[in-house]
Design a protein that fits this description.
SHOCT domain-containing protein, 0% strand, single chain, SHOCT
Length: 60
């Protein structure tokens, strides 16, 4: 009975941490480098020149 209760509590704690980290994306591998680069360029985090240079580096 006590073991079952401890397992339920452990499962709830695990689910809480998975939720806090943004779900199960870490199991799927998340974004690939090209998607990250595209997102950063679209958000204005990098310039067009930086984008082209990094895209070229990824494609070589």
């Amino acid at each position: 009975m006590i073991v079952g209760f401890i397992l339920v509590i452990a499962l709830l704690v695990l689910l809480f941490f998975v939720y806090q980290r943004g779900g199960l994306d870490f199991l799927r591998g998340g974004e690939n480098p090209g998607e990250i680069l595209d997102r950063r360029y679209a958000a204005g985090e990098i310039t067009e020149e930086e984008y082209k240079r990094m895209k070229n580096t990824l494609n070589t």
